[in-house]
Design goal:
Elements lengths: L9 H26 L1 E2 L3 E2 L2 H5 L6 H39 L4 H9 L6 H18 L7 H23 L2 H10 L4 H12 L1 H17 L2 H5 L5 H9 L3 H34 L1
Antiparallel strand pairs: 1-2
Helix pairs in contact: 1-12, 3-6, 3-9, 3-11, 6-9, 7-8, 9-12, 11-12
Length: 267
């Protein structure tokens, strides 16, 4: 049996692409159409222009505050993934391989816990955090770091399994490189794809999370959208669409950067 027989007919591939494309694009098209509705003229950009209307600044202020908080949380959560989780995984794989299964169990455990259960467990901790470092929205990064842990772990571990960290580290050490140099200039470039995927997941989780922020009484983009939706549903949908578009563009940029890095290594 030839290898070509395992691949579907071009017409089948085209049909699958059309169905999947329609499944993704039709809801987005319907969302865009909703934001353009105007009772007087049918469709216009009046709702989009209202975002920048000074007379409505007070009504839309929660969204800007929530967006600022979410962007801050995004940066802090990505920093937790890149500068805490990733080095710990590298250390476990290089120095303590016998602990890998235990570490994997701990890292994947949050995925089996509902958000409400996490909040119940985190509430006493956040009482202490509130008394020590304040109740700013940025403190949600600790909870988001736990939420994103299973997905970021899988992304980074897949890259670690694809390269031989021990050989790379020993080769760099034999040439006189310190551990910081080994991680920064040798291991991190080889784990670029996993690190970028983990960062993207962290961004998506932060921009879309509602339950933890709401129950811990912190304001982020999603809680602000729920608040503003009671006054203007069009604006809340517009900002949701923009957040989705931001994640999509970020995904394209990460994929582009990863492909450039892969071509560079091939050369």
């Amino acid at each position: 049996m030839s290898q070509a027989s395992f691949y579907p007919h071009p017409a089948v591939r085209t049909a699958i692409a059309v169905v999947v494309g329609a499944f993704v694009l039709l809801p987005l098209a319907a969302t865009v159409e909703f934001t353009l509705r105007d009772g007087d003229t049918g469709h216009s950009f009046v709702h989009w222009a209202a975002i920048f209307d000074p007379t409505k600044a007070a009504a839309y202020k929660p969204i800007w505050v929530g967006l600022t908080n979410s962007l801050t949380l995004m940066l802090v959560t990505v920093a937790v993934v890149l500068f805490l989780l990733a080095p710990t995984m590298i250390l476990v794989n290089l120095r303590f391989p016998k602990l890998r299964r235990t570490f994997e169990f701990v890292a994947l455990l949050p995925v089996s816990l509902p958000a409400i259960v996490l909040v119940v467990g985190l509430t006493p901790i956040y009482l202490v955090i509130g008394r020590t470092v304040g109740t700013g929205a940025w403190t949600l990064a600790f909870a988001y770091g736990i939420t994103v842990l299973p997905f970021a772990y899988r992304s980074i571990q897949a890259s670690i399994d694809a390269v031989n960290l021990v050989t790379l580290a020993e080769a760099a050490r034999s040439l006189g490189a310190g551990w910081l140099t080994v991680v920064r200039r040798v291991l991190a470039p080889n784990l670029r794809g996993g690190l970028m995927a983990a960062s993207l997941i962290a961004v998506a989780v932060v921009l879309g999370e509602f339950t933890i922020a709401s129950l811990l009484n912190r304001q982020n983009l999603q809680t602000a959208l729920v608040l503003v939706n009671r006054q203007d549903s069009y604006v809340s949908v517009i900002f949701s669409l923009m957040a989705l578009l931001f994640c999509f563009v970020l995904l394209l940029l990460i994929g582009r950067t990863g492909s450039i890095g892969a071509r560079g290594k091939d050369r």
